[in-house]
Amino acid sequence: MEEFSKIRFESDYQEGCHPRVLERICNSNLEQTSGYGVDYHCENAANMIRNLIEKPDAQIFFLTGGTQANAAVIKHLLKPYEGVICASSGHINVHESGAIEATGHKVIALENSNGLLKPELLRNYLENFYSDPTFDHMVQPGLVYISNPSECGTVYSKKMLQDFRIICDKYNLKLFLDGARLGVALTSSENDLSARDIANFCDVFYFGGTKIGALFGEAVVFSNPKLAENFRFLMKQQGALLAKGRLLGVQFESLFENGRENLYYEIALRENAQALKIKRAFQEKGINLLYDSYTNQQFPILTQSQYDKLSRKFVFELWQRLDNGNLAARFCTSWATSDNNIKYLINAIKEL
What we know:
Blueprint: E1 7-8, H1 19-27, H2 40-53, E2 59-63, H3 66-77, E3 82-87, H4 91-94, E4 107-110, H5 119-131, E5 140-147, H6 158-170, E6 174-178, H7 182-186, H8 195-201, E7 204-208, E8 218-222, H9 231-237, H10 246-256, H11 263-284, E9 297-298, E10 301-302, H12 304-311, E11 314-315, E12 317-321, E13 327-332, H13 339-350
Parallel strand pairs: 1-11, 3-4, 3-5, 5-6, 6-7
Antiparallel strand pairs: 2-8, 7-8, 9-13, 10-13, 12-13
Helix pairs in contact: 1-10, 2-10, 11-13
């Protein structure tokens, strides 16, 4: 029972959903609608997203979770002999239990820089790949996968996405952006991208709801509508077509109404603000961070003693064991991270 008395910072989906989302779900509970996402709520939410990204022809599908979305999209976009390129730290490479490989596609992992795949590294890989006279005996790259923010809380710049687009066009590759935490990237103080930019540069991306205020759900956006052909068949085959699909539509209606002044961005801004309070507390204590993150994930480098002291009162993630015996931890904020819990953590940091 001791674990239940601790304050949890190990992820951004420990609680349920934002009260405004829950209220909307409850208010729609007795409505009768068609199933499998063919209902007014899903269409209304899709139109809200189309308006936000200024892509009236974008095709939008609602799935329940990030791994499901990644596996379904990647399987749909790749030919049987193709693989997907990502940073070595990418979620599909390290935290999805081989979900992509289980679809029959190789994950081609390239070196990362603070969690980011660098365009120049991608370009070098492709140049070397196609200069090899035996390249037709290898797994062919068919897709580039990035996540924004990265697994390390860092964000991609507009220039980087422009460069990715140029490279992908040159080598006939598709560009897919995992947006499980896209809200916190777009509202980060380090961000220079808009949702419209994401839609312009990427063939497919998604607005993650699970980690930004929804009970569950990801809104997959095919910016290139031609690529969406028959995706619903793939969703059904993969068990990704929710019978009570309107539950997803209702949540994204709540998150995306009111245009750019939407609840989705409001929640993400608050997650970042709470995380930056934690970051400052560690810095003021003289504790370094593994990555310079301005989003809702923070990675302090702790001694074993510091780690043990914080573990008595808080639940957080052990991210990496360092060669010098120190431990990199991850503290993550959510829509529900309270001011009181932040103050409690900051006081504990001061006492280290």
